[in-house]
Amino acid sequence: MLTRVAAPCILFFAIVFLIFSASPYAKGRRVNIALSNPEPKAVRAAPGDKFSWETITPSEELIWADCYADNQCARLKVPLDYSNPDAASAAIAMIRIHSIVPHNSTNYRGPVLINPGGPGGSGVDMITRRGSQISTIVGPEFDIIGFDPRGIGRSTPRASFFESRSEREIWSSRGNPHTMSMNASADALPRAWARAIIEGQLAGERDDGSLRFINTDHTARDMLRIVQAHGLEKIQYWGFSYGSILGATFASMFPDNIGRFIIDGVADSENYYANEWDNDLIDADKVWSSFIDGCVAAGQEGCPFFSPTATEISEKMDKIYATLRERPIPVRTNTSFGLVDYSMVRRVIFQALYAPYARFPDLAQAFADLSAGNATALFKMSEQPPFECAYDNSGDRLESVLEATFAVTCNDGSRILPGYEDTVTHYQKMSETSTWADVWEPIRIACVAWPEFPQKHFRGPFVANTSFPILLIGNTADPVTPLWSAHKMSQGFNGSVVLTQDSAGHCSISGPSICTQKYVRQYFLEGTLPAPGTVCPVIGTPFPTDDVQISTDAQTVLSLSAADRNLFEAVRDLATTFDIRFPIGL
Q1: pLDDT in the model for residue 484
Q2: Nearest to 464, CA basis, from 183, 245, 253
Q3: End-to-end alpha carbon distance in the chain
Q4: What is the pLDDT of residue 29?
Q5: 150, 213 contact by CB (below 8 A)
Q6: Of the candidates 95, 172, 209, 571, which lies 20 to 30 Å from 474 by C-alpha distance?
Q7: Which distant-in-sequence residues (6+ apart) come within 8 Å of 374 by Cβ?
Q8: Which three-class secondary structure string do you get for 370-396?
Q9: How far is residue 56 from each of residues 158, 190, 282, measured CA to CA in Å?
Q10: Distance CA 339, CA 525 (A)
Q11: Which residue from 445, 455, 442 is spatially nearest to 413, judged by alpha carbons?
């Protein structure tokens, strides 16, 4: 059970918008606080949108063009190599949700830059999908700015070492280790290592000279250019997951340029730059336990995978694993087909650990079906649109591809020993930390044969007396950025405060907490930090439980002001449609 610590927070009961609707597992009069997704997940705006980024000429000044309905887009020209700024250039794709408050108003508070994580995540995609909710939280006084970091998505040059989408798809379809458990078979780990050798060779052979400049150091410098292009010197920023590494890097490099600065879902930057990746999973098993314990507490009506004890649920999971190891299940849907095997189940579970409110109910139903021999629901949780060769070539330049993750992580991190036995040793060490090492190890393996570029970029130390204190946010049970990391990183930034959210999931927006998001808003608007040691609750659970809790949550929501209900609706939508990945390939 997650610890419920009372916080000195006057907003203790603020969260979660109430919609009375029948629970999908309800009987009789049971009512569910609507933490299930009320609408289909928004699709990415990239290839299908008629807006063409090529109509915008990169410029050192921000020239905004209408795009994606009511938003504006720009391409900022920046140096490819900041040590030689007069040579080649890069172009950073940006999207803006304009403040409701006019820019000439004294109440206008400037832009807030958003990074969704990754490495490899697209800020443009995040804003087209979730920008309205982010804007509601931060407030109408601010512009919300998403950007694709250099090498990623619509920014150019882009990290890519395949000659075509087809070549990338064919290679990925031949046993992509990022979709496999390293425990799936005896040769899973050595195959992942061998594939990384090929990918490292491709990266070196097909590099046009730009690859070495795709790193966090240069992206931090790009962020400063974005701020300066707005005529400002101090940044306002909210970075999630890998965005915490980018944020810690920026704050350490440019401590005098900090205005309002939040890092949310905080990774250990020292461990990241050391290319170790071995302390990220400290709390991952705790999140998985929250699924099991939550299912037990919810009962048969609230969790279709219910058993009376956690031990019995674990035993059912072991049976599912053993069955799929022996014989995968073929699935044919109306849009695609494939096999549900051990690796797919492990990957789907691990993705669900990021977003309990969005995924735990569906996961429980999929397991119940799977126990009965029906794998369709589980397959749909991992289903991807079918690959189409007949594709506008320009669309390829809009996609965030896995090579971008490789480029940032491998360029940033220390060189790792390329020998297979060293990979085995690292995997064994990581396995001692968490049972989820089998889906996390491939991130580091990708760097075993990376080209040996000079490593002159910033890699610490992460110590700074920033011009304004930083706010760090961590969950009590985060699968890949444990709360411990937030406290460690806070020690290096004078005056910073860690705000704890008492929930399972990745980053604060994976759980519905008005308490947390009101602190976020107060920090951006007023510069107010929570008291050290503050713990924010969430309302509701991923599973419906008993009538007493539902009634209590209902009364809490009904007591909210109209403004707080509007805030909760944004928080609820984020939690139940949460899709941040760390890194993008998982």
Answers
A1: 98
A2: 253
A3: 27
A4: 31
A5: yes
A6: 95
A7: none
A8: HHCCCCHHHHHCCCCCCCCCCCCHHHH
A9: 17, 45, 45
A10: 50
A11: 455
Q: Is 472 helix (H, G, I), strand (E, B) or coil?
A: strand
Place of tokens 């949550």: 553
Backbone dihedral angles phi then psi of residue 96, each to the nearest 5 degrees: -130, 130
Q: For 244-288, what is each residue's pLDDT tens digit? A: 999 999 999 999 999 999 999 999 999 999 999 999 999 999 999
pLDDT tens, residue by residue, 419-433: 999 999 999 999 999
pLDDT band at 401 (very low <50, low <70, confident <90, very high): confident
For Cα atoms 157, 161, 163, give the angle at the middle one, nearest 5 degrees. 100
Structure-token match 């299908």, residue found: 48
Classify the phi-psi angles of 117: left when phi > 0, otherwise alpha if psi is within -120 to 50, otherwise beta: left
Of 425, 459, 452, 453, the C-alpha closest to 441 is 425
Work out the pLDDT band at 173, boundaries 50, 70, 90. Answer: confident
Tokens of 570: 């944004």
Can you tell me which residue has the tokens 């803006």? 96
For Cα atoms 236, 241, 246, give the angle at the middle one, nearest 5 degrees: 50
Question: Distances from the Cα of 355 to the Cαs of 316, 361, 503, 508, in angstroms?
Answer: 22, 11, 10, 10
How many contiguous H segments (helices) and E segments (strands) does the chain have? 19, 14
Residue found under tokens 């009320």: 38
Span 463-505, pLDDT tens digits: 999 999 999 999 999 999 999 999 999 999 999 999 999 999 9
Taken in order 415, 418, 419, 422, the sign of the CA dihedral is: positive
For the chain, state the CA radius of gyration: 23
Question: Three-class SS of residue 558?
Answer: helix
Q: Report the amino acid identity of residue 463.
A: V
What the block records as the tokens of 311 is 């031990």
